[in-house]
Amino acid sequence: MLTAAHCLYNRLTQGLLQPISLHVLVGYERGAFRWHRLVAQYKIGDSFDGSKPPPQSSDWARIELAEAVPDVVMPLPIARESPTSGMAITLVGYNQDRAQLLMADPHCHIGIVTPQVGGTLLLHDCSATRGTSGGPLLARGDGGWAVIGIIGGRLAALTKKGREKRSFGYARTHSTATGRCLAKLERRQHVRSRTPLPSRWA
Q: Does domain 88-190 have CATH number 3.40.50.1100?
């Protein structure tokens, strides 16, 4: 699985959580889930420092489950095309304001694309809140949905309307070891902005 490294960082202890303390609930919705898996180990970006403020291009974590998830859950591929300004994307995640439901914003786009050492910083206009970090940024092509990056957090940006919060994410090339390990997500057929995803898998 792929997520944000800061999701595994404990600010109170100023250290990373132990793998044995992590639990993965696949298909979670309103307290119910399809499968429960423990975490065997994980790897984070080499230069990630949880005590430093975002953004950090190394803010990613690759999680290895102690037991495989059934094949009915097909992993999404990494997008083959590089992220570009204006590209249409969809953000999927569990937002803090509705933490019991998997939410999606399918009407957003990538803004500024900034290549950095170890990854690429993506500024986008997806509707994100606390809790969404580590969720996938998806792009839809001829072959279906693919992961273009992961959500990293929000930054204060100066716009024509004044100071606003803008979301950002991270992208890595599909040739990296991190890119080959994907969050196991099941595709949905119909998605509406800021509403719960339908319960039936596409």
A: no
